[in-house]
């Protein structure tokens, strides 16, 4: 009897089921996690018995089998996300992406986008849909486009966006453009961006070539032999003329090559024992000659160890195979990468006949680490520490003190005063008892309210004495009582006058205080002021007098102006002096000449002085010195 049980794995037979065939692999696939949600609707046993066992295609194509099972599950509205990029991936066309569970009945397209409403079907399905931001061009099309590209459709059914330009002809050049309103117009081709080739070869020029189906002529380099100026050389005896071409020129190149039949007979010479004779031809020579060359070196070049460099024997440099040897250079030795334990140090040991030293760890307690203790801690020897080298280790232990706010150390029985911002002051007392929470001695902290009502011109200043808890009020501004009884407050640095007395608010070590001094007036001649046409005016609250001129007397005045000279000017306005004012004039009848005589004085300079200022020139970005004269003083002088 022939055993045909294996034939069920390779041949499809009508009536095969899981009773006569092996369905173990089928059950293993359907019992994976993504498919278990569908077992109550579609039995894996029945599906394997009816589909797997009797169909050879599904046994060879597992992804098709699982897709068939999921398709039945979709009819029960069960979403199964079973495909991955590594397992049974579904490749979508460009512009689309895979969705495992699609429930919409209709797809949004350019044709229905204005009135499209999403609707849900009675079943779900897996499908390749348009990516986010795109929709289907047409219901019978596989292309996904943006909604902007729905404005126009060319004669081949492709979507076109507003402003897009394309060639509507397969062989000719018919350029069209999509407008904002959806209309399509014919436009001229834009050939401004046609690349212009760089003709680098000698004898080339740019030629326009019209290709079939192209809108713009293609520019290419062509050879023009009429502009080639290569001269044909005259070859000497023993040479012949040869014509060739190079990659950098399209013009023919002429050269003379050797004629070996015209070469003289050469006698070979003897070579050294480490050389052999070869026949060579030198540059620009037509004939061959003999040359001695070296044979291959048999002795290998030595391999150097760490820290050694390869050197050549100077006495053998003229031979074909020089002699090499290794020379020690300790600077090239590798750095030791040994980590020594606590209590040991790294020690270098030189080894005979070896370039680089060896490193090892030896006992040394000098480098034993000493811990850095915090405030309130002390260093103590660790009695439980043992070392191979007999070294001692220390650790930090809390001292028998009180630690206040992590920075202040108090001995038992000692007290201190601590002030903080606000009205509270703390008195700290260090006790003999130990605080279990911190490990330090416990502290009693007493609070004192140091609130004190200070004036509007005062601030509260804490006590600078460590044994006094509260401080006092300190003046930060000055108070002054006027004659009418009003009280004014002045800042430090302020100055005021009252009853011909000058007062200053100054800062001192104890606060702001008022210092008074009498007002000192400069000398003043009231009659001279009136005689010169001035007005007597008082200032500093009537304590002093001054003469105010009417501004018309001749005097030296200042003017702020910007000096300009050609393209040069001063970088800022400059103060210059000039004469301005009124001078006396008169007309008197002269009886001798029987006419009026006129007398005039002008406001003019009394002495001049030279002055130089610096001007910046914008033309060449340089500075130049400019000199001018200005009056030292002004007065009324006869014209």
Describe the structure concisely for a colleague:
By secondary structure, the chain is mainly beta. The protein contains five helices and 44 strands. A four-stranded antiparallel sheet has the order 37-38-42-43, with no helix packed on it.
Features:
639 residues; 5 helices; secreted; Laminin; Mucin_vWF_Thrombospondin_sf; OTOGL protein; 4-stranded antiparallel sheet; disulfide bond; 3-stranded antiparallel sheet; mainly beta; disordered N terminus
CATH topology of the domain at 5-157: Laminin
Largest sheet, described in full?
A: 4 strands, antiparallel
**What is the assigned CATH homologous superfamily of the domain at 5-157?**
Laminin
SS strand fraction: 35-45%
| Rg computed from alpha carbons, rounded to a whole number of angstroms | 56 Å
Provide the structure class: mainly beta
How would you sum up the global shape? extended
Just name the CATH architecture of the domain at 5-157. Ribbon
Measured between the Cα atoms of the first and last residue, the distance is 156 Å
Q: What is the CATH level 1 assignment of the domain at 5-157?
A: Mainly Beta
- The helix content, as a percent range, equals under 10%
Secondary structure tally, helices: 5
Q: Give the low-confidence spans.
A: 1-15
Mean pLDDT: 81
Largest sheet, spatial ordering of strands: 37-38-42-43
| Strand count | 44
């Amino acid at each position: 009897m022939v055993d045909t049980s294996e034939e069920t794995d390779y041949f499809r037979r009508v009536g095969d089921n899981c009773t006569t065939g092996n369905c173990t692999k089928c059950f293993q696939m359907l019992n994976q996690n993504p498919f278990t949600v569908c077992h109550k609707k579609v039995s894996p046993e029945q599906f394997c018995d009816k589909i797997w066992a009797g169909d050879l295609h599904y046994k060879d194509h597992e992804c098709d089998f699982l897709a068939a099972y999921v398709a039945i599950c979709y009819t029960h509205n069960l979403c199964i996300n079973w495909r991955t990029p590594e397992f049974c991936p579904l490749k979508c066309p460009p512009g689309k992406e895979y969705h495992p569970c699609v429930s919409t009945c209709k797809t949004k397209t350019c044709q229905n986008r204005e009135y499209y409403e999403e609707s849900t079907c009675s079943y779900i399905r897996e499908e390749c849909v348009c990516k986010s931001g795109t929709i289907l061009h047409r219901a019978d099309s596989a292309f996904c486009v943006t909604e902007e590209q729905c404005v126009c459709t060319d004669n081949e059914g492709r979507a076109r966006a507003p402003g897009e330009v394309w060639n509507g002809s397969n062989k000719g050049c018919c350029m069209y453009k999509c407008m904002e309103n959806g209309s399509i117009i014919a436009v001229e081709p834009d050939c401004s961006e046609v690349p212009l080739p760089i003709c680098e070869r000698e004898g080339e020029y740019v030629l326009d070539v019209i290709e079939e189906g192209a809108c713009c002529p293609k520019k290419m380099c062509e050879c023009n032999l009429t502009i080639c100026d290569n001269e044909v050389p005259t070859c000497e005896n023993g040479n012949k003329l040869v014509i060739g071409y190079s990659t950098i020129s399209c013009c023919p190149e002429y050269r003379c090559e050797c004629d070996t039949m015209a070469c003289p007979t050469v006698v070979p010479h003897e070579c050294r024992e480490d050389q052999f004779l070869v026949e060579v031809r030198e540059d620009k020579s037509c004939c061959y000659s003999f040359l001695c060359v070296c044979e291959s070196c048999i002795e290998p070049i030595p391999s150097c160890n760490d820290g050694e460099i390869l050197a050549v024997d100077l006495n053998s440099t003229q031979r074909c195979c020089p002699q090499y040897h290794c020379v020690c250079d300790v600077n090239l030795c590798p750095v030791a990468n040994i980590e020594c334990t606590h209590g040991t140090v790294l020690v270098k040991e030189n080894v005979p006949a070896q370039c680089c030293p060896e490193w090892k760890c030896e006992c040394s307690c000098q480098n034993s680490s000493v811990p850095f203790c915090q405030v309130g801690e002390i260093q103590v020897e660790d009695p439980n520490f043992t070392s191979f080298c007999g070294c001692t280790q220390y650790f930090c232990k809390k001292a028998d003190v009180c630690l206040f706010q992590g920075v202040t150390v108090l001995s038992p029985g000692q007290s201190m005063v601590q002030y903080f911002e606000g009205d509270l002051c703390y008195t700290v007392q260090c006790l003999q008892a130990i605080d279990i929470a911190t490990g330090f001695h416990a502290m009693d902290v007493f609070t004192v309210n140091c609130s004190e009502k200070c004036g509007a011109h005062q601030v509260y200043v804490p006590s600078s004495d460590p044994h006094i808890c509260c401080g006092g009020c300190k003046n930060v501004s000055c108070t002054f009582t006027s004659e009418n009884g009003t009280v004014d407050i002045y800042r430090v640095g302020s100055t005021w006058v009252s009853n011909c007395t000058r007062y200053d608010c100054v800062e001192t070590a104890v606060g702001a205080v008022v210092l008074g001094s009498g007002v000192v007036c400069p000398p003043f001649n009231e009659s001279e002021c009136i005689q010169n046409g001035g007005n007597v005016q008082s200032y500093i609250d009537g304590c002093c007098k001054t003469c105010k001129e009417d501004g018309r007397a001749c005097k030296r005045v200042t003017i702020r102006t910007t000096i300009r000279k050609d393209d040069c000017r001063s970088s800022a306005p400059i103060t210059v002096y000039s004469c301005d004012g009124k001078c006396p004039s008169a007309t008197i009848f002269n009886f001798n000449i029987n006419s009026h005589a006129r007398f005039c004085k002008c406001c003019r300079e009394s002495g001049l002085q030279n002055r130089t200022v610096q001007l910046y020139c914008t033309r060449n970005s340089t500075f130049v010195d400019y000199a001018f004269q200005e009056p030292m003083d002004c007065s009324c002088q006869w014209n």
